[in-house]
Amino acid sequence: MLENELLLQIAKDYGTPVYVYESEKIIHQYQTLKNAFSEVDVQIKYACKALNNLNILKLLKQQGAGLDVVSIEEAELGLMAGFTAEEILFTPNCVSFDEIKKGVEMGISINLDNISMLEQFGNEYGNSVPCCIRLNPHIVAGGNKNIQTGHIDSKFGISIYQLRHILRVVKSANIHVNGLHMHTGSDILDADVFLRGAELLFDAAVDFPDLEFIDFGSGFKVAYKEGDVTTDIEALGKALSSRFLSFCKQYGKPLQLWFEPGKYIVSECGVLLVKVNVLKQTTATVFAGVDSGQNHLIRPMFYDAWHDIVNISNPDGTPRIYTVVGYICETDTFGWDRKITEIKEGDVLAIKNAGAYGYTMSNNYNARFRPAEVLVENGKYRLIRKREDISDLIRNVVMD
Ligand SMILES: *Cc1c(COP(=O)(O)O)cnc(C)c1O
Q1: What residues contact residue 52 under an 8 Å CB cut-off, 6+ apart?
Q2: Pocket of ligand 1 (CB under 6 A)
Q3: DSSP per residue over 52-103, as a string?
Q4: Quick one: which atom of ligand 1 is closest to the CA of 134?
Q5: Among 3, 109, 120, 268, fewest CB within 10 Å belongs to which?
Q6: Does the annotation mark 329 as catalytic?
């Protein structure tokens, strides 16, 4: 937990809004997952779309993680951070075959999620380049419907019902399939979802003799508010590991078990610090208007996501009810009717659990600059990304 004094000092040194991340928390989450699966050969491919600052990627590389990327650009960031190409898994959706070819040229592992690309991949490479296949087991799970990927209408993965078709394509082009993959969504509470998905992947796996790994994706739920129930990682580790080992026996050789968590690794490490510009009392509501908005943290408006908000300038004040809103000219609300210790204009608020899908989903709407990012390590802190300035907004503008 980052102390209020430290956060206030960071807000003073670097201004607001500012994202602050705690390296110890990231390491703790990574190790917890790793330890829960210590009985098997587990590989954790951090899904870097959650938070992709090079310093964070480096930190996870040092811990021994690999990387899950969804674009060539993310793969390039991974290489810059020091990951080897072999440590990177490319799991794109609806990209061109040219982008997949680029991935092959870079030497990163390829995960294909539609039959058209599988056919083109087979025609181009035969069995000279291995690939993984992303199956959709059609298990509906996850929080908001925008983050579910397993339903029947989902654009992700190749339907498990098309397995026979997949096998025909694989056979006819002699494709070397080295992994099977699923990812059923985000905010999945129930460990059973992973176990049910696992059984479907195991059933499919017997038709692929050259597997080296099975990738169970991600979607572990973290707590966004007090009392939130979360995925029981230890219980999942025990149950899935033992089932995985018995499957490997049946399969006839040891396989690696992969995960690709994003949110689980980096959500809780981060806070977004904002300053209250104005208190505004209307007939119904007291608004606290802050110097940030959905341009910097879109999750509340986009997913109806809850982020705890605390007043770190007055942590012991009397709790009152506020609606915390941003400065963007749109409905732009961080939290409705929140109990927060008494706010004065100029106070600094901490918006919690902002490590995942915060900065990476930020934008320049209203011509606002993206915030700075700061990393706290062993009680010391350092700037890991500068706040943007006006030159960033006009960098690519062409004038005659
Ligand atoms: C986004 C994504 C993840 C990470 O999901 P989280 O809910 O952040 O853990 C993993 N794998 C794939 C393929 C993804 O697209």
Answers
A1: 74, 77, 360
A2: 47, 49-50, 68, 70, 91, 183, 186, 217-219, 260-264, 356
A3: --HHHHHHHHHHT-EEEESSHHHHHHHHHTT--GGGEEE--SS--HHHHHHH
A4: 13
A5: 3
A6: yes
Residue 163 parent element (H or E): helix 163-173
Residue 332 has pLDDT above 80, yes or no: yes
Residue 46, CA distances (Å) to 43, 66, 206, 261, 275 in order: 9, 6, 27, 5, 32
For residue 350 the two structure tokens come to 């901490």
Of ligand 1's atoms, which has the minimum distance to the CA of residue 50? 8
225: how many CB neighbours lie within 10 A of its CB? Answer: 10
Lookup: tokens for 282: 């209307």
Q: Whole-model pTM above 0.90? A: yes
Nearest ligand 1 atom to the CA of 147 is: 7
Alpha carbon of 263 to ligand 1 centroid (Å):
8
Let me know how long the chain is: 400
Q: Find the 142 Cα to ligand 1 centroid distance in Å.
A: 12
Ligand 1 center from residue 376 Cα (angstroms):
25
A 10 A CB-CB count for 365 gives: 15
Q: What is the pLDDT of residues 284-316, one digit of tens each?
A: 999 999 999 999 999 999 999 999 999 999 999
Phi, psi of 6 (to 5 degrees): -65, -45
Q: Which amino acid is at 196?
A: R
Q: Confidence class of residue 122 from pLDDT cuts 50, 70 and 90?
A: very high
